Amino acid sequence: MELVLQQKQTLNLVMTAELRQAINLLQYSTYDLYQYIQEQQAENPLIELVDHVQNMYTNRSASTPNYSNEFPPDPLDFTADDRRNLYDELTEQVNVMSLSEELYALTHYLIQNIDENGYLQVEITDVVAQLNVSSEQVEAGLKIIQQLEPIGIGGRNLAECLAIQAAHYYPEDEFLYQLITQDLERLANRQWEAIAATYECSLEDIQEAFTRIQTFDPKPGAAFATNSAEYIEPDVIVDMKDGKFTIQLNDSYIPEIRINRDYLPLIQQKNDMSSYINHQYKKFQWLKNSIEQRRDTILKITQAIINHQLDFFHYGFSRLKPLTLKNIADEIEMHESTVSRATMNKMIQTAQGTFDMRRLFATGLKRSDGSSTSQTTVKMILKEVIDQEDKSKPLSDQKIADYLKEEKEITISRRTVAKYREELNIPSSRQRRQVVRQ
């Protein structure tokens, strides 16, 4: 073996830092872009930001915070939040009861271990060990909590939660209570013939019990959840004006990027400072150009989508046509990956609602006449067929597939029907079956 030192010329594709940042910039949402620009200002002394958002509060005192680089404050943010949570509601009910000191402390401990849905999240044995009390005392405290409102609070599982509600609303219906505590799983799977044979009752009796259970609340504590509402901020707005669709980027709060002219004289000098300033100046130019290029790319892609999906923008998802990233890429002469990144993390606001931009792309299914229809349209047809079926004899997945082929000229397999049905959260035919009273 001999060691040899030799030169070799190769050609490699290298992704520069600027190219990597440009790719990230394209797939940012508008808010992500806003944050990125703020970060760039902090790193680059040549960048000045001019905020176009007019502050709604013009008469501030000297002690009022400055919001020049933030969103204007929402008046609702300064309103006292008087919403009651589940813990407050249960505690108030226990406080008016005449309980011993030990039982009072025990019930408060149990309340603190109830989750936001109203379920007890601690085992009886754990409470016994931690508080050095008897299991009988814990059961007594739990019984008190399970009598509080909202009805169903304090259940350790779904069956117990529903059983509490059954005992409260239908105290005379022992059969209902028995079904919940002993046969809830079979009842949920609508194995009604087997249940009828076990209890020697009619299908109508089981149907009545099932109907009553459907009126119960499986999450009695959820009404007191304190989660604040989440608002969707669209990145692209499509509107109709004078009979034509207009496109607007929802970036009015994105500040204007300007150069700090105090540093410009240093560019012409020949020293270490000028080298640094020149580098920051190039980064400033790159940022402005990349943002403008991002804007043009998103507008161009959105216009191409509108051209392909005109029926959707007029009539909704039932008229959504098959569309792929490649279709758009070919039309606007861009790479498919560019279209993918530009539509990533983008919300679009239309007359049909606000949703992820990717929903406007849909793979197609062939019809018998050679044309295509989108998966979204097929799912809507499938849901309509199931909504109109005979509830006493619901259609199987194979019968739905046969119907789509014969009546709608859409060729689809049974497995695909089952997949779409599960995506729509529609139960199987056995679980959809109901007993129709004569």
Give the spatial strand order of the biggest sheet: 3-2-5-6
Mean pLDDT rating? 83
Low-confidence stretches: 54-72
Percent strand? 5-15%
Overall shape = extended
The biggest beta sheet, please?
4 strands, mixed
Describe the structure.
The chain contains 18 helices and eight strands. The chain is of the alpha+beta class and 438 residues long. It has three domains: 86-223, no CATH class; 236-360, no CATH class; 364-432, Homeodomain-like (Arc Repressor Mutant, subunit A, Orthogonal Bundle). Strands 3-2-5-6 form a four-stranded mixed beta sheet, covered by helices on one side. A hairpin with a 2-residue loop joins strand 5 and strand 6 (353-356). Helix 1 runs parallel beside helix 11 and helix 8 (174-188) crosses helix 10.
Task: Write a short abstract of this structure.
This protein has 438 residues and is an alpha+beta fold.
Question: Descriptors for this entry?
Answer:
438 residues; alpha+beta; Arc Repressor Mutant, subunit A; 4-stranded mixed β-sheet; two-stranded antiparallel sheet; 18 helices; 48% helix; 8% strand; extended
